[in-house]
Amino acid sequence: MSSVRLNDTAMKLRKQDQALSLRQLGAAYGLGYVRIKQMRELSGFPLIAGKIMPSDFDQWRLTQTGLNLPRPAGRLRSASDTTRALKSTSDSRVAWRQIENSLKAAVSSLGLPEGNGSSDV
User: Fold this and answer.
1) What angle do CA 99, 102, 119 make, to 5 degrees?
2) Which residues make Cβ contacts (< 8 Å) with residue 2, sequence separation at least 6?
3) Is 32 within 8 Å of 26 (Cβ atoms)?
């Protein structure tokens, strides 16, 4: 099987969450034979009868890296997170005020007569 055809087939099967052979797994995830062989030896590797489901593999990889652990409930933000959030909010307020003021100045510089009291610009 040519490598282009193997890659296309592997990606199609991965998107459809259909069983992949180890060779197709390597093509779909960009992993080499040696790396797949190493992973196969790790505990919990989701190989059944020489096939592997992409969703099972994705979940297994997340478990191996510790990324699927639930976050503690009510986790407090760090001070830097809070400061960053406040700064971005205040920066956007300042930016909008600057835009509003420049629009008001531009409209007043046109010398148009005052409208009917509407503040729409």
Assistant:
1) 85
2) none
3) yes
Q: Tens digits of per-residue pLDDT, 103-121?
A: 787 777 777 766 555 555 5
Other beta carbons within 10 angstroms of residue 58's beta carbon come to 15
Q: How do residues 27-70 score in pLDDT, each as one tens digit?
A: 998 999 899 989 999 888 999 988 999 999 988 988 888 776 66
Concatenating the DSSP letter of every residue in 64-109 gives: HHTTTSPPPTTPPPPHHHHHHHHHHHHHHHHHHHHHHHHHHHHHHH
Q: Which amino acid is at 106?
A: A
- 24 exposed, middle or buried (CB, 10 Å; 0-12, 13-18, 19+)? buried
Measured between alpha carbons, how far is 51 from 1 in angstroms, rounded to an integer? 18
Question: What residues have CB less than 8 Å from 23, skipping those under 6 apart?
Answer: 6
Distance CA(29)–CA(20), nearest Å, equals: 11
pTM of the model: 0.51
